[in-house]
Amino acid sequence: MSFLSIKINKNQSKKELKAEVIQLGEKEATITIQTDSISKLWEILVFEKGGCLVGEQYVNKKGLKRAKRPTVFNETSWKRFSNKEKEKLTEFLITKFSDTIKTNVHTCPFFVTTTGEIAVYSLQHILKNNWFDFSEFEKYKNKETKNATEQPQMWLQKILKNEKSRKKLAELFKEELKK
Questions:
Q1: How many domains does the chain have?
Q2: Which residues contact 78 (CB under 8 A, 6 or more apart)?
Q3: CA dist 149 to 142, 146, 161, Å?
Q4: In this predicted model, what pLDDT tens digit does every residue of 68-93 receive, in sequence order?
Q5: Which residue did the predictor score with more confidence, 171 or 13?
Q6: Cross-sheet strand order for the sheet of 102-106
Q7: pTM of whole model > 0.85?
Q8: Residue 11: inside a domain
Q9: Cβ distance 87 to 99 under 8 Å?
Q10: Is residue 63 situated within a structural domain?
Q11: Domain limits for position 77
């Protein structure tokens, strides 16, 4: 399979852009990302497409109904990514844990995610378990958010920077996959 990519020249006027869209056809154009490659789809989702987690990076384990919000994990392309083979996804995402490159995905009300961080959030949704639900990291579960630098996103980034903690988290997600 392949995918369609449209590049827009920033110097084009609105009139020129409109003319190009009209050439695509009278109907509304829908662009669908189609690729079988986990890594290529990942690159598109986190670096090209991006989006907002709207605080829904964590799995709701209490069974409470949440209103559907326009968060990245509710988008069709993310659902398509998440529906790939769990074993392959888990292995792939774990390889991203140590990556500290900033993505185009951000948390509200805080910061853009690192590649490792969005990999953890993705695994949380795929395996239905939050990183702080593992007994080894439970101390963070009810820890109070004090400010922009003393909050769950920063705690996770700190864990991912520490090789021992990062490896432990990877082991725990692998164990969760077996359940």
A1: 1
A2: 45, 72
A3: 16, 8, 15
A4: 666 778 788 888 898 999 999 999 99
A5: 171
A6: 51-52, 102-106, 112-114
A7: no
A8: no
A9: no
A10: yes
A11: 37-178
